[in-house]
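Re: export button greyed out
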Amino acid sequence: HFVSIDVNADQEEAIKLFEKYNLVALPVTDSQGHLLGIVTVDDIIDAIREEQTEDFTRFSAIKTKAVDLDLFTRLREIPFRKVFRARVTWLFFLLIMDLMVGGIIQGFQETIAKYVVLVSFLPVLIDTAGNAGSQAATLVIRALALGTVKLKDWAFLLGRELLVAGALGIAMGAGISIMGIVRGKSIAIAQVVVLAMIINVIVGSLIGVLLPFIFTRFKKDPATASTPLITTLADIFGTAIYLGIAYLMLG
Amino acid sequence: HFVSIDVNADQEEAIKLFEKYNLVALPVTDSQGHLLGIVTVDDIIDAIREEQTEDFTRFSAIKTKAVDLDLFTRLREIPFRKVFRARVTWLFFLLIMDLMVGGIIQGFQETIAKYVVLVSFLPVLIDTAGNAGSQAATLVIRALALGTVKLKDWAFLLGRELLVAGALGIAMGAGISIMGIVRGKSIAIAQVVVLAMIINVIVGSLIGVLLPFIFTRFKKDPATASTPLITTLADIFGTAIYLGIAYLMLG
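Workaround output, generated via the alternate export path:
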């Protein structure tokens, strides 16, 4: 028995075989096992680079199908029209999602008008949640791409993230607490800000862990759970959580 | 004459030689050209995967030095303490930077108190700038990593980005204009929001293009220009630009 690959297999599968068995060439067969040709290791190196470019660009909300992948790396040559199209699609979709954040803020307009200082903590609260979420997503996406984590691991990793994000949230809450008192000029404001920070970091991180699994489950590339998408979701949830807490605790 | 590599060369250089000449093995020599050993193609495949993991995690503001790179991909095994340390460093640093945004908002507190509706556009304005910046940075980082773009290309790419980002900014400005009128209930508010959107997308994108070059210039990995770092910078500039325009146009 020797290692071979079916002609219909994904290139990602061929890459994994080369890695596992340290191959320099791999026979390609049809479903009956007849030899159709061979893939050599230099093809595989190109394929690895290509997959990585795809993951990397997709992870930044660039539409990889709009442009030949190879072209993305030859930045000086890529036509204006193509790079515009590759970028505008997600930007626009995220802008529409982001308008929801504005709707949430409008719903709490009375609380904001009473405590204008709350606004000055909004960016740091939603940003930190998005940053923590991006970190979490990156680790999951990379592990899924390399095959070291499978779909069935989602519950374990989600539980673990709850602990890590809880600790990170408390650390970030401590970091912002002094500013909450100094800038908020009240313990009540500081309490709202710290509590919102802890919950936001946890929620952002859980979104970051879950989203790549959800995309994988629905046969999409896990890297579709891009940083900008996670940031935007963290903004929507984070704003609602922050202003909700402020409304409940301050009125 | 045959292809070889100096023993002190970076592994990234070895990867480029393998790609360029489709090698299966590469002799390693000392400075006098004496053969010291050979690198084989399966080592190179591992090296490529490792470099990619490093770029990918670094690009999400995870401190890669805190953990053995290989461990990052075995998520189920990575100890709590290590993953916490790898994530908390940048999160905390970005939190401190983000506090500046709050300071800027406080400086414009009077304008905000007069026009509370301005707050509802803040997240979408700073987010879109950060998203566009992340896209721009990704393309530059990837091209620098593959060697298809050099340090000297920065001015050309910056000029080009000005055009692309200008077009993207106008598209996003058009996208938000209706909401500016509907939600702002005034043409003046809509004008502020649209103008801020166009400038923010341009500024965010230019930061995204420049930062990887700046890190490269100072001998740092271009991927240090992480999405969270770009997002945070876009927030600082974006908030100042938006509220500055509002102050000038609305008073």
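The first strand of chain A starts at residue 5 and ends at 6. The button fix ships in the next patch.
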